[in-house]
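Good morning C.,

I know you're traveling, so I'll keep this short. The sequence:
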Amino acid sequence: MFCALPFELPPPLPYNGRMSDDTQPPIDASTRLCAVFGHPINHSASPAMQNAGIAALKLNWRYLAFDVHPDNLREAITGAARMGFVGINLTVPHKLLALEMVDVVDDQAKPWGAVNTIVFEKHANQIRSRGFNTDADAIVKSLKEDFALESLRGISVLLLGAGGAARTAALRLAKEGVAALSIINRTASRSAELAETIRKDCPNVTVTNSYPGHTVDLALNATSLGLKPDDSAPIDMEWLRKHPPQYVYDMIYRPKETELLHAAKRLGCRTANGASMLLHQGARSLELWTGQPAPLAEMRRALEKNIYG
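The tokens, ready to paste straight into the viewer:
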């Protein structure tokens, strides 16, 4: 998928005028673009968060969101490369698909089997797409941060989903040393395949594909169920009522409180949504694109304002 380079990519351009933390320079012929591709995408808070980070770094860039159907993903990635995009993020349902569509999968992304960040880099007078995964570390940071946990080692986890985000979470949690992992997915073959991968890579982790007959420490929703008001719950509600976990985490951050989190809170569980995971994976993406430390405070402030304000 290498794209011939019809132009010389300029370095990140600073803006030399006066600019407040939340104001970007006017768009001109030198403005560079980055974006998030998803389907659906209207719920995304990434543009607000990333544009705040870009403004704090005083770059003449803009971050946009595009609804890209899975059938058009390969063309969209190629088009972004040809148009000189800095890079793109990928959200539902593209993270597994993109693994076969980028020119190079970065070594640090290969263990997780999914790509959520692409950097377009110059290589031999061409542009190639390099795929990264910033979700893996972000979910661990988020769980520790939101639930004030020093370690995830030894905990038991019920994971809902087996798609791109779920696969990354399962493999990363296994590497963290969780004791037990129950993977539930609508398509049983996908959860069984993921379970087998974990058994091979992390034999000390007990992995099952059914609801445990006891309470677990953490229930984690990595499906898209909850994005729409009429979505069914991603969990067996009867199991939840009988076995309320200590912690319930939903990767969905809009709405702020999904049906799952609402029910869990009423049962006395400690709950958190996926806002901090989005923050940490987005900050790492920005660092990959710019080569600079991400302005985490500004990005967090913009994200919280977009979701909660």
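Safe travels,
E.
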